């Protein structure tokens, strides 16, 4: 058993760290305050070829896997971006490139992968719905056959990055949930040209005001009589669950990587303050009440990292990774929250000041415990699917 990261992942860490060294904590604070996409970082990542890691070499990418994407996300997050980095690797390299490389047709790959590799185009993913919530199989957005085309109607919620996306991976029902047997049948994923659909008045969106992660807007999305050719299907009609699992597991792994990096930066902020701040004649970090919570966070970060890398490695090697992805997401998100909370407590009242990054780190960390899947559902999966306990529904 070898716990050494492969050279490909180590090279990614060095390359991303080099880019990140050009941007300090104040930069990320300004991006969040101004609700602005970090264009400069995105441009540097694109120029260095770091957005095309998961694109096969024949399409101009790096030919790497999810492990390298996870390391890139973790490194970027740990540099100071925290939750803001998740969208930079989840939306386009994750949702777009990784999924197309596995499930796209030859035509879809040739048309999109080279542009995804360079960052020329971006993608987003539309699954969640207002009424279905976490029950993804109960979505009602429906694609009806009409000759050689499909006509789609429905609503989506919490869809991030629509404003920048050239293409959307849109999850629909082609068999109503009540009629599908098994329940996983009847899902179909489409590739939607977002600018064209918006210009035609068939797709619209409305941003949702939110407490954090404001570098990228999240939206309500409305689909009205959107006509799509059969060639826009990603994967197979009615068999979209295969595509879905290859989206959701990497999403959880990449969000775990972002949370892990967020935990690292929060820990660093807390430790630095504990070293420097003196009260009663000594640094406050000399007090066990301050030191021990920070030390506990460090232990949890290292444990979460082991499962994160195992989950990504399993996906890349074609092994089942659902359990590992769920555990990685659960533990990394908890570590991020505990790290941010410990940093907040270490700063005392000054944590409440927006002159410090602690409030941003706390807001970014909190979302990880409820999105894109709640802790309760992750625990329910482990209880029923791993431990074999009775289902509650």
TrEMBL record:
Domain of life, per lineage: Bacteria
Pfam families (alphabetical): Acyl-CoA_dh_1, Acyl-CoA_dh_M, Acyl-CoA_dh_N
GO molecular function, one term: oxidoreductase activity
UniProt keywords, alphabetically: FAD, Flavoprotein, Oxidoreductase
Enzyme Commission no: 1.-.-.-
Family indicated by similarity: Belongs to the acyl-CoA dehydrogenase family.
UniProt-recorded name of the protein: Acyl-CoA dehydrogenase family protein
Organism encoding this protein: Microbispora maris
């Amino acid at each position: 058993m070898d716990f050494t990261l492969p050279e490909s992942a180590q090279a990614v860490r060095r390359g991303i760290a080099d880019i990140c060294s050009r941007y300090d904590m104040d930069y990320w604070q300004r991006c969040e305050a101004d609700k602005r996409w970090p264009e400069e970082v995105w441009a540097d990542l694109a120029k260095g070829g770091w957005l095309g890691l998961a694109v096969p070499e024949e399409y101009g990418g790096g030919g790497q896997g999810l492990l390298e994407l996870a390391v890139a996300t973790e490194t970027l997050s740990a540099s100071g971006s925290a939750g803001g980095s998740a969208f930079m690797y989840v939306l386009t390299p994750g949702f777009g490139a990784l999924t197309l490389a596995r499930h796209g047709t030859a035509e879809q790959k040739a048309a999109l992968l080279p542009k995804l590799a360079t960052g020329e185009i971006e993608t987003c993913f539309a699954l969640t719905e207002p009424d279905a919530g976490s029950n993804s199989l109960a979505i009602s957005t429906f694609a009806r056959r009409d000759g050689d085309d499909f006509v789609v109607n429905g609503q989506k919620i919490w869809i991030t990055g629509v404003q920048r996306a050239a293409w959307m991976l849109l999850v629909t029902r082609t068999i109503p949930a009540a009629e599908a047997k098994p329940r996983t049948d009847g899902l179909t994923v489409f590739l939607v040209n977002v600018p064209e659909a918006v210009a035609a008045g068939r797709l619209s969106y409305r941003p949702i005001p939110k407490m954090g992660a404001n570098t990228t807007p999240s939206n309500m999305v409305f689909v009205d009589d959107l006509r799509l050719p059969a060639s826009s299907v990603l994967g197979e009609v009615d068999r979209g669950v295969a595509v879905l699992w290859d989206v959701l597991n990497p999403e959880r792994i990449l969000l775990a990587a972002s949370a892990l990096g967020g935990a690292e930066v929060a820990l660093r902020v807390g430790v630095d303050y504990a070293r420097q701040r003196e009260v009663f004649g000594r640094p406050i970090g000399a007090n066990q009440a301050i030191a021990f919570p920070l030390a506990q966070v460090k232990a949890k970060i290292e444990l979460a990292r082991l499962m994160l890398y195992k989950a990504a490695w399993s996906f890349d090697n074609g092994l089942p990774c659902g359990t590992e992805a769920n555990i990685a997401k659960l533990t990394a998100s908890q570590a991020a929250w505990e790290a941010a909370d410990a940093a907040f407590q270490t700063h005392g009242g000054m944590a409440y000041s927006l002159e410090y990054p602690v409030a941003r780190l706390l807001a970014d960390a909190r979302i990880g415990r409820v999105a894109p899947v709640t802790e309760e559902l992750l625990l329910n999966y482990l209880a029923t699917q791993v431990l074999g306990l009775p289902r509650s529904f």
